[in-house]
Amino acid sequence: xxxxxxxxxxxxxxxxxxxxxxxxxxxxxxxxxxxxxxxxxxxxxxxxxxxxxxxxxxxxxxxxxxxxxxxxxxxxxxxxxxxxxxxxxxxxxxxxxxxxxxxxxxxxxxxxxxxxxxxxxxxxxxxxxxxxxxxxxxxxxxxxxxxxxxxxxxxxxxxxxxxxxxxxxxxxxxxxxxxxxxxxxxxxxxxxxxxxxxxxxxxxxxxxxxxxxxxxxxxxxxxxxxxxxxxxxxxxxxxxxxxxxxxxxxxxxxxxxxxxxxxxxxxxxxxxxxxxxxxxxxxxxxxxxxxxxxxxxxxxxxxxxxxxxxxxxxxxxxxxxxxxxxxxxxxxxxx
Amino acid sequence: xxxxxxxxxxxxxxxxxxxxxxxxxxxxxxxxxxxxxxxxxxxxxxxxxxxxxxxxxxxxxxxxxxxxxxxxxxxxxxxxxxxxxxxxxxxxxxxxxxxxxxxxxxxxxxxxxxxxxxxxxxxxxxxxxxxxxxxxxxxxxxxxxxxxxxxxxxxxxxxxxxxxxxxxxxxxxxxxxxxxxxxxxxxxxxxxxxxxxxxxxxxxxxxxxxxxxxxxxxxxxxxxxxxxxxxxxxxxxxxxxxxxxxxxxxxxxxxxxxxxxxxxxxxxxxxxxxxxxxxxxxxxxxxxxxxxxxxxxxxxxxxxxxxxxxxxxxxxxxxxxxxxxxxxxxxxxxx
Amino acid sequence: xxxxxxxxxxxxxxxxxxxxxxxxxxxxxxxxxxxxxxxxxxxxxxxxxxxxxxxxxxxxxxxxxxxxxxxxxxxxxxxxxxxxxxxxxxxxxxxxxxxxxxxxxxxxxxxxxxxxxxxxxxxxxxxxxxxxxxxxxxxxxxxxxxxxxxxxxxxxxxxxxxxxxxxxxxxxxxxxxxxxxxxxxxxxxxxxxxxxxxxxxxxxxxxxxxxxxxxxxxxxxxxxxxxxxxxxxxxxxxxxxxxxxxxxxxxxxxxxxxxxxxxxxxxxxxxxxxxxxxxxxxxxxxxxxxxxxxxxxxxxxxxxxxxxxxxxxxxxxxxxxxxxxxxx
Amino acid sequence: xxxxxxxxxxxxxxxxxxxxxxxxxxxxxxxxxxxxxxxxxxxxxxxxxxxxxxxxxxxxxxxxxxxxxxxxxxxxxxxxxxxxxxxxxxxxxxxxxxxxxxxxxxxxxxxxxxxxxxxxxxxxxxxxxxxxxxxxxxxxxxxxxxxxxxxxxxxxxxxxxxxxxxxxxxxxxxxxxxxxxxxxxxxxxxxxxxxxxxxxxxxxxxxxxxxxxxxxxxxxxxxxxxxxxxxxxxxxxxxxxxxxxxxxxxxxxxxxxxxxxxxxxxxxxxxxxxxxxxxxxxxxxxxxxxxxxxxxxxxxxxxxxxxxxxxxxxxxxxxxxxxxxxxx
Lengths: 335, 335, 328, 328
Ligand SMILES: Cc1ncc(C[n+]2csc(CCOP(=O)(O)OP(=O)(O)O)c2C)c(N)n1
Ligand SMILES: Cc1ncc(C[n+]2csc(CCOP(=O)(O)OP(=O)(O)O)c2C)c(N)n1
Ligand SMILES: [Mg+2]
Ligand SMILES: [Mg+2]
Hints:
The complex is a heterotetramer, with 2 copies of chain A and 2 copies of chain C.
Chain A: E1 2-5, H1 7-21, E2 25-29, H2 32-35, H3 45-49, E3 54-56, H4 61-73, E4 77-84, H5 92-99, H6 102-105, E5 114-120, H7 135-139, E6 145-147, H8 152-163, E7 168-174, E8 192-195, E9 207-210, E10 215-219, H9 222-236, E11 241-245, E12 248-250, H10 254-264, E13 267-274, H11 279-290, E14 300-304, H12 313-319, H13 323-334
Helix pairs in contact in A: 1-8, 4-5, 9-13, 10-11
Chain C: H1 5-30, H2 55-63, E1 70-73, H3 78-84, H4 88-95, E2 119-121, H5 127-142, E3 148-153, H6 160-172, E4 176-182, E5 185-186, E6 189-190, H7 191-194, E7 210-214, H8 219-234, E8 240-245, H9 270-280, H10 286-309
Parallel strand pairs in C: 1-2, 1-3, 3-4, 4-8, 7-8
Antiparallel strand pairs in C: 5-6
Helix pairs in contact in C: 1-2, 1-3, 1-9, 1-10, 2-3, 2-8, 4-10, 5-6
The structure holds thiamine diphosphate (2 copies) and magnesium ion (2 copies).
């Protein structure tokens, strides 16, 4: 049986299923016991699984994420809710030097199976310290897998995959895509038919949301849905856009990207993260280092510029990679 | 009058000159009072300027770098030594959300003039937590300037520039280039004639170390010198390599990169930082988004792969972007 | 300074102004967010953390400070900003994202900066602690007067920055007062669920700092304790952890239903209590008290009007102010 | 457990083994690094932080532990690793970067992992604190026995992680012992120059933990204090900050001239002292003591031989082990 679910509910289902069966899974994070995590991924788990397995922590991210890593080394599979990715600054060492590198530094002797759930992104005027994406800041670290579903089907399947992975996995969700009430009505393209049974979605494969022949638009998280909006608009103008969701930053499906661009010859890379030294450059480089000859026109980036994210609505709206900016970029490529 | 200096001595000269004249400059960091910083940039300053201005701190990076930011907001210009960039994990929030964003978040009302000196890189078997470069991890943050001299002339001039900049500047030095004894004899190409008088080297311009017509090799920090070694070797084979030192990651001289690649049509990007989501992709994207038609052959990256840095010598040597790997990449491009 | 009637009337005025500010912002916040709550809607979007209940902290501590002293506040900054004398018109305009705002709309409510009164804030927990200590260090090096006060919550006291900074404050006898605002909650997490000891002020001995605790949420008591802490700091006797029991009457942020708060933990509004006390002590008549409150409301109404009448920033302005010294 | 002669002979054996290990590594370290010192040269490159002087800490604390207990150590891990029974051959091979090393040469001396004896270490200051607490949490959740011990330096106690983890250990009464090894120095910075209070064990009250201090650098005293801490942890009475005054005889790392250490702060070698004590107490004769020392040296010589005779890893192996579950 399958139902239409939001990403948040779909993710919750995966975690619930695994927790029911696997005592090594425990949840940690600020307010998770009473509030169930930023997207309600652990909604009701406090009552269901009790305070031993659903642990509300002090505001001590270095401490509790480091503890999660230690618990993972000792045989648990902790699932940690970090709420906003903006907060990684206070616990980045655990990500950078501990959870990600221990397996390698031990020559494979020590595993660190843990899943870190983090919300990303802006668009709701929460300003410079609560709206960031920082995709590259986590995906640049060797030894961590980084996945980023953008619809309910993937949200459930990729969380099952993460929970069964023996490695440190960072599972990102853009706040605007999760379908939680406080971000407004759910975005239709994030909703999906979700089987009740568990299933896995493998990491490292792009998802082609929509096939097209003229221009490839890659996105991840929220920018996938902005790209889809732009594509629908452009279709009316006779432009056929292929929308490719990267959905897994580590591992990255470089061949999947190449396949699409080889077909269309035109590339717009969207990313709500900052422009420089990030995902957008990596996607373009991936194509160029395979064959720059596929580009009929120079590739274009539509991203957050290299600025702290402004609070005021007209300022933020001007810098987000929204459908209008994406459509304009596509039109320029087609002219 | 000018003399041949190492980068470390040249940088020290700039800081000393500015400190003599500007009471707002203070030095902070672990062991700086007695030891003068990782490269001796503050060598002898403890005795010369006293403990008030050369402050050895506890091992509390969040605390003292955050204090430096506060002192900067209150009119000082702190110069902080963080030793190894691997340690940014424990203080990344100050870089990410505080020192870099305050000027913007205050609408320009509050300035944060401070200079953070950090050593990068490996090559001496110091393993996964003491050999990283993390160029992208700092350069991806909006609101911070990131510079990276690779020779003594730039080391002095860029430090003068940093110390006179009203912004948060991260000043990187690859340990192997500094010319400090514990890293072995100085690399000849890091040494330079350095005027005794102060001078500034502007940020945001590449430096062409060596002109060439066949292939552009970009590098930064140590990889510049590996590229120079490769270029000398390749010259014997009749291949003319242009070696371009990025030397300033923020701002980045995108036109300078383009100019060189437009001329040679072939690009090898070297970087001792991890491959993905970093500098190497950004350089390739910079060219591709201007004109992918300039590439006579697909660009090639020679970087640290996406792995924690192994300790053992044969392992580390195999993954560093050394001259041999660079030369091979160039040869492939020319074949 | 003795607790003069004038000072106490000032506390009342400040508390009324702060409450009026928050009440006005709450009203604006709900505009456009009903019937379906969503952060991004209405004239005041984003998260909003109001200070209702914490007014005595702002009033009492700031009255003990001089203009040369420096403040950092956290994600819940209004009561401190109002008490410190941050420009009300420009603060309201900032919350509404207008060009006339303190940061021209770039900061928002968690990022209030007013260098004219040495006020700064940050939305990252405990980030302001090191900044405050650095400001104090600067003044020592500059041989200029000025102590620094970091306002944090009891939840923030478990962040590593607290430890690192308190240790350096103690080590170097920096003139810093760490005001731990214990409103019993960090989002839904009670202090007992997050903190191994009952009072953060007791942690002062781990840092060679002084510790003081005030449990009344009364500006008189808070002022006197703050004055002692400030005097120690000015005298070069070092820092203080000043823990103040206070209240968080309007929830963690707007939209917080607070279902997690048990009935017996319902918090008391300090404003009516202090009003009664001043009347009882003969400092104010009921009419005078209410006139002050009305005046405060009127002042805030003017600030809201100013903000609403202000222009929006132009989209292109988003690109300015990334770096100092560059063309805006 | 009483301080039996056997136990004390064991301390001596452990200390000799640890010293022999460090002395052997120091000898190897200087191979190829003279006359011009440089980190990257010789058969044992990189930074090397030796434990000479801290042997009583490893010997005393580890003797109080059972096989189910878990340890994290820091950048100076040898004395703890040796006392814990980490495989000596494979540890030596790891330091020499050989394929037979504990991590096949990928870790190096700051990254010693031996899951067979629940031992891990890290080169980032105070990183191991949270890891240890998490291991203890895991055992509680798994309803399996096992406490965790985090070994850190007195310099590390000023890192924010110390505070965050101690608070959670106190809050949740986790079975964790934090061993603060006070060797007076963090690189060139003396404890008094870095720490606002004299003893980190006094900070325990800020976390509802127990605090104990041992000032003798004697394994007998250390063992007894560690046993008390371990007993409390096993009994569910919570964690302890156990501060142990110890020594750092070989400098911060090899190459450290230690010119910053004033003559009157010269540290004492605990080995001859303990040897004398055991002889005085009739636990060992001089000959027996020296036989044990000689045996330790011989054992380490065999480890060095094993390491030297071991093959280097193949360059391609660098790419393996980034992720678990992938073809190596
Ligand atoms: C480093 C970091 N972690 C988490 C958060 C999210 N957060 C914002 S406010 C808050 C609770 C703060 O509690 P407290 O310090 O007691 O202040 P109060 O809200 O009660 O005024 C949390 C967890 C944050 N902003 N920064
Ligand atoms: C976060 C971090 N900051 C700085 C360093 C550099 N560092 C390595 S050891 C050390 C001194 C440690 O002193 P202590 O904790 O007392 O241990 P000891 O060396 O005395 O054994 C420092 C500063 C580091 N490894 N990690
Ligand atoms: Mg609170
Ligand atoms: Mg020490």
